[in-house]
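Handout, tutorial session.
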Amino acid sequence: MIVSSCHEEKTGLAAVFLSKFFVRWPAGKDGFYLLRRLFRRLGYAGYLLCCILAFCLYPLVRHLPPYKGLWLFAERGNDAQDNAFHLFQFVRKTAPYLSAAYLIDRKSPDFVRVARLGRTIQPGSFSHYLAFVCADVKISTHIMGYSPNPYLFTKLKFDRMLPGKKVFLQHGILYNSISSLSAERIHVDLFVCSVPKEYHELLTLYHHPKRVVQPLGLCRYDRLFQAHSEKRQILVMPTWRLFLRNCSNRTFQDSGYFQSFHCLLCHRKLHALLEQYDYELIFQLHPEMQHFTPCFTNSHPRIHISTAPPDTQSLLMESKLLITDYSSVFFDFSYLKKPLIYFQFDSEDFFSAQYRPGYFEFEKDGFGPVCRKVDEVLIALQTYLAGNMQLPSLYKKRVDTFFPPPRTDHCAQTFSAIQDLLSNSGK
């Protein structure tokens, strides 16, 4: 007891001392919490010091060959699947004279594919910091995705003081209400959107200037209409959950998210339908949730739990039907005029804890039936299978109304828009 009291006293004194200089000591938290907060802040200090040094070197370095006239492309830093990669690929093939670099980790399974096209930069390296401050144009699918620490530098509004032009390609069609993307919160020089309703929202509710917002479409859409063959394949691809992203496996398995998809994958009726109609099913978790993949087990030979980083475009092109919840990937799939099913078992929680509803109402505007229970999903699936996977006229009409006519020049138009942006700035 005496030792315990002495330990608590010392811990308390240390907490008071450190909290005065580093972080506030929250009630009910132990010393490990404090250490985590302290190390996080020390890490932030490291980011800032490297960035300050890069800014100091900027007047000299920006004239050197590796950084002069640089176009910096980025997604998450560990992948090359999205709009930034497709645009980078286009630029390297059609304008090899441009200085272009792609931000990607050497350990990424996509690294070799990017390196074959051109220069790569390791995230977190000092070359990354120099490119961050020196690039004439910074292009990303995620806000500040090209920065050494998107969270920190977005909070500090580095996007407003950073030299060079900023291009936000997006990684999907914006349909939820996300206040962090408003003009008051972020500063970009080109904000790419895809559909008329999205364009209107960005101007009226997000208050971005008309000169900034351009309906150029998603660069990755160019690949969707390339020649490909479909498989007798159903794709289940849910989005992530903010409140589950960093929880333990046990907590995850107790969640409604796991229970709902586990019940679907293990349901005997699903197994029977796959056998009756000779279909395979692929279950693919979102990148933010892939560390939970081992929690799911293959419950049938025709069901495949994907353990590898997805080639999302290939999966969409090859599959006959998509089952998702709220993932914006349903826009890509619907753009191909293929049938889908929304499995929204937790809509109230999702739209209160993660996003706010936007202009798109699933029951009124959606491109497939909205199901709340596993049984409803299976009934909808059986209907599509029995109907040879045809898209009903109601949903076909909604697709035709929502999207502009299909085209395959999204990369070319985006490239031209960036060139115009640089020309108008004297670059």
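The second record follows below. Compare its token runs with those of the first.
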Amino acid sequence: MNYYLPMIEHLGFYVGRDINNFTEKSYELIDKIYETMECIKVVGRDEKKIIYVRYERGDFDSYTKFHKFKFKNKREYQEEHEYFLSEYHMEYDWIKVELYRYEEYKTIIFNNDLIISVDPIDRRKGFEFDISDFLKDLYRKIQDSINLIINNTYYQKLCNEISFRQRTGIIKLDDLFNLNNNWKNDYFEFLSQKDIALFLKCIDKQIEYTNIVKKEASKHKSDFEKYYEELEQKYNCIHRLDKVNAKDYYDICKLCYKSINLESSNELSSKDLFYKYADGRDCGLKDIDLNSYEAFEEWVKIANDHAYQIRGGSTTSRIDLCVVKDDKGYYLVLSGKYLWISNEVIKFYVELTKNNIPVFLYDAEVIRDRLMGKGIVGIVPYKIFPRYCQSLFDIDICDFMHLPYYPKDYDEYLKYIEWIEVENTFLKGE
């Protein structure tokens, strides 16, 4: 049986995802694949090896048989046929296969999906999955790619034929804003020209002294962190609050929530509003006396990052507002650099500044530059979720995206994208 691109798109459902209980025939073919890959150079931990294999789109009949379509009439047939041609507009594409081995443990990742996991000790009991047809086909395709490598034609052919949706690249944020008004409008949704002007005026002062601190601290490379902290306090131009209690902190957070018109920001109390939008892992803040300065001071000593998440979420969607106490008093540190939260962070910073709240913006220079359209957006392959992808790039990325799905929608993007070279595969000894 030949496997085509439409089948590969749904591989996890039809072959199995992270399954560790196969037929003996399937295990034999897995071993055979690993044997034929012995000639390939290791490129990472756990004997990691990478190879791209070429899959054809196939015809419409194979597509309908695979999905077991039964058409009621000619119209349904035509509509599905049109969808097939638009969805799989390329006659073929190259799919990334990663193989890992640690002792007798084996893992195969297919187009960034974990498909096969072999645990020689703890094989799961029950139904045995027969994936031998898929593995036979994969084995043939791997052999074809290896032959191309031996003949020195593999990499050129791969680069010429792989689809843009499978590739990694970068695009300047200002170019993206110019290409896609939705991105630009969404980003500037909360920000007036007055907000932007005030933000830039205030943040320039902070960036100025931050650069002084970095320069002075760099003279002490062996103990940079220690000196940075000391100098940060010395040069910190932010004023301080003499005392803060839990009620004060909740009220400060409410200023932030109201600045972006969050739901219920006018109706709920400051405390209730905080627990509606914050992370919730508050290290006991909920239980301390609202008006006790002493209790809040003790809480600050034990509070962790989660407690300060005033906008709960993942790494790319959370916003922190930390309370810092030094010899001069209290001030706040606001952080959240990723693109789709940095607009809210800017609004928070402006609102706190307007209300004379001492606030230090973490990653201020990065956020300022992105406001001016100077950030870089990473384009990742369509099978990779566009979050937590910084490891794919050697420069700082402000956000990640997929290309629009169809060529007609991304043709214009191609003029502005800088593509990262596709990974090559080498024989041992090269």
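Points raised in discussion: The radius of gyration is 28 Å.
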